């Protein structure tokens, strides 16, 4: 295992309030970094953000991404992986009628396009664009797209593969023109930021009046977080520096100057989180048969979670925020 330096963060860095330790003993879910981390929840009722404590300082954080699962391919038995991949597809196909009937398929489609399916095509900026598949998807639908990411290698691949303009670094460092985009998306991005408040304010500046901001992020009050404790994949320490609930992210977005149009949670894709979280609990690798059983179990959990939200709102695996820049801005 590699080592990474972490420093205490006793106070909320968004409002300066004290916090309450809500989870400790969180290990790197990829098993590459030594040590454990915890999350505190801000005691200020007007904030309520969760923050990583201790946390790596900015100059150390690159170590957390050197072998990150989105940047590297893990080795393994190809036949077993291919078989599980086929099983994965067959299970999804078998469940498709049920997903269509109960609305989960509609929710998945809604999130596949970051809620933009019915929005008129315009200019779109994806903050934290990663491999660029979402941007390419929207480009094919007639959108004028650009992306930003901290990973220079990733942005180069997006540009060379899809012909999409990209920018490297923190959103503020990109110095994009004011009032220049109709939509900004941040899919599973805000939780990785040292200063999410500053990023939201920069989004407000860059968006055109009336422009739309769409964000998704892990839900710290999800059923999965409650069930798995320190093994919940959504903690993702030490890469996730802040986590949110529907209420806390809605408040932060409003403080940045946005009008929040939708604040909710969703379950589409939760099967992956359930499967990985259960795997994190195991001290030894699963057999192939148990992997298959785990796959079936995780899809069942996703369906259960989807239905549970009808009686326990805001308990889905991820938070969704849709917010607009006011049509008229002063100054």
Automatic annotation (TrEMBL):
Secretion signal span: none
Source organism of this protein record: Sideroxyarcus emersonii
PANTHER family, per the entry: METHYLTRANSFERASE TYPE 11, TRANS-ACONITATE 2-METHYLTRANSFERASE-RELATED
Sorted UniProt keywords: Ubiquinone
Pfam families: Methyltransf_23
Protein name: Ubiquinone biosynthesis O-methyltransferase
